[in-house]
Structure formats: C-alpha cells, structure tokens
Amino acid sequence: MMLSEKMRPSKISRMIGNEEARLEAAKWLKNWSLGSKPLLLTGPPGVGKSTLVYALAQEFGYSVIEYNASDVRTRDALEERIGPMLNNQSLFSDEGRFLVFLDEIDGLSGRADYAGIDFVLDFVENVPVPVVLAANVEDDQRLKKIVQKSHHLRFQPVAEDVLYIYLKEISRQEGLKEVTNDALKRIVRTSRGDVRFALNSLQTFIASREGNPESTDRQFPTDQEALASIFEAETFEESIERMRNLDAQPRDKVRYFFDAIVGAKNLDARAKADALSLVADADILMGEINKTQSWRLLRYLDRILVKSAFGRSLVPVEGSIPWNLRLSIWNDGRVMKDLLPTLSARFHVGKSSFSSLYLPYLSLYFKRNETGFEKFARSNDLGDSEKRVILKFSTRK
Q1: From CA 260, how far away is CA 266, in angstroms rounded?
Q2: pLDDT band at 38 (very low <50, low <70, confident <90, very high)
Q3: Spatial separation of the C-alpha atoms in residues 209 and 198, rounded to whole Å
Q4: Is there a contact between 280 and 337 (Cβ–Cβ < 8 Å)?
Q5: 218 DSSP assignment
Q6: Three-class SS state of 28
Q7: Crossing angle, helix 195-211 and helix 160-173, to 10 degrees?
Q8: Is-contact 238 203, C-beta < 8 A?
Q9: For 367-377, how does the pLDDT look when each residue is reduced to its tens digit (9 = 90+)?
Q10: What domains does the chain contain, in order, with CATH numbers?
C-alpha cells in the first residue's frame, strides 16, 4: 500500500497544516442546516482538501457521495449523475446522513460544459444535504459565482518545518532507521508543501535503500534523475521499461511530463502543441480510469506519456513553474483542445497549423478590433473562457 494512503488521516486532529481552515470547516458542518451555503475549498494539490472532507464526514457521522467534475464535465452529464438528488428526498431519510463532495470543479472548462457551472449553482442551492466543493484554483472567472455563493476556505502549501516534523514522526512510527535527516530535508524541499508528493517521495527513497542497502544519501533518487533516465533512453521500449520502474502516482506522472514539455526551451510551438496534445490524452485517460476504476488501463497511460516525450531531448524541471501558473496553463490547454477542431475546420487547415501559425495573428487582430471579436465569438458560440484564451495569444512572441 502506498504511504500516502496508509497515512491518510481519518481524524481532523491528525492532519497537518491549514489549522484555521480545518477549524472553520468543522464549524461549518457542525452548524449546517437546510439552506446553508456550500463549503468551497481552494488550494494546490496535495494539501489536504479531499482528506479533510472524508475526515469531517467520519467524525460527524456522514457518508460521502463523491463526484469529480473533470470526469462529469457537461451540464447534461452533471444533471444525469447528480440531478436525481434534487427530486429524491427519500434518499436522505433517517436511515443515514449524506454529504456530497464535488471535487475539481475547476475542471469544468470549454464550450461543451460552459453551462456546467450554472447547474452546480442550481444544485447547491436546492440539495437537502451538506455540499463541499473543491478546486485547485480560485482566480478563474468561471468560479466567481460559486465563490460568491459559498463559504470559501483557502488552503496553502504546508510549511517546510511542519512537513519535516511530520515525515520524521512517520519514519519513527514505521521504524525507518535508514531515513536520515538529510534525506528528509531533501524530500521536504522538493515537495513544495505537497504532503502527498512528500509521502510518495519517502516511499521511493525507502524502496531504493531496500534494493541497495549500501547506498548513500547522495544516491537518493530524485524525480529529475528518474525522469532523465526515461528521457535519455535510446529506444521507445527502453523508455517504457524505465517508466514502469518510476515509483510515482499516475497523476504525478502526468504532471512531470507536462512540466518538462512546457519548460522545454528546445521545442518550437508546433512541437510543444503536439507533445501536450498527447499529455492531454493521458489526462483524459486518467479521468476515465478514476471514473470506471479500470486500473488495467494504466499500462496505456505510460505508453502515451512516453510517446509525448520520446525523441524530444527533454530535460526534467524542478519547481520552475508555480502550481497556480501550471494549472492556468493546463486549463487553457483544455479550452484550446475543445476549440481547435471547430476553428481549424473553419479556416480549412490542420489543428497544429492553426494553433502555431493562424491563432497568434487572429488574436492580435481581435485584440485591436473588439466589435469584430464579439461578432466572431457569437457566430462561433464562444464563452468567456474561450475568448480569454484566444486573446492571450496576442501577447506571445
């Protein structure tokens, strides 16, 4: 079992970091009554948002009904999954208490699910049970309405000194005498306040020491070293084999490759677009795996990610892209992935050619011609997210 799952706290008091936010969340659920605002948790991945929801539910006697908005992205899909709760009061009888958890609501993006946010607003105002929403970002125009109608709590990355004490205590409890203070400090430094990432790194370190008892702290396998070996493989199959030996969560693998491609200085716009399209496919596959629990599909995830990087001379990056900027780029990419088929067909060119050659000039033209842009947006049924992303290209060189 992964350490991140084994050590997941089941009580609020056993969590670390974001003490004030945890206390406020407990007060919210304790005082919840019909008509109360939903609870909105925002903050970077790995800082305890989901863990808090389940710990709260257990301590206050609720069962959690969880949905991931990035997997149920359109209004129709949301209504199909969640809508029956609005009309089925018997589900919430005295036989049990339920709490609805809608995770990654910032995953609602693009033209197809533009109305999804409106449905979420309708849902949280009418559902007869507590509702908790979670998002990795809050400075998104699409989420402003939800922020205004929610009890909003912001989560921050866990402080390094707190994370160090936490990992040291886990090492003591698990009898991990081979884990030195220097190794823990290095894990903490590279984790950047992400508790889940820190626990996964600790497990990777333990596995490396068990495989080579004579290893030293200087041989601690960093993310960059593991990725470098994958990127430097001479054959595709060799790269696949090294990928399978990378001890990281699937979501973290997607993040590693995304960071490396975005940070690559040797790739032009077209090459990055092609590579990121494959990473986006991997992300969609990951969503399908989570939704259907078809874990056998993970073998295809590795192949898609390796294909995105193989032969591109990538170099791993470490913390070069802040989490909020990375998520902004990621969300913009999702919007563009929805837009490209329609716009490239309209201009009778390929998607890659449109994004690298046509779009920057089109964006610059529309930035100087607001009336023309509004007319273009109406004729192509563009929402605020799509218009914002298109105009961004005018500032790129």
Answers
A1: 11
A2: very high
A3: 17
A4: yes
A5: G
A6: helix
A7: 40
A8: no
A9: 888 888 888 88
A10: 3-154 (3.40.50.300), 160-309 (no CATH), 327-395 (no CATH)
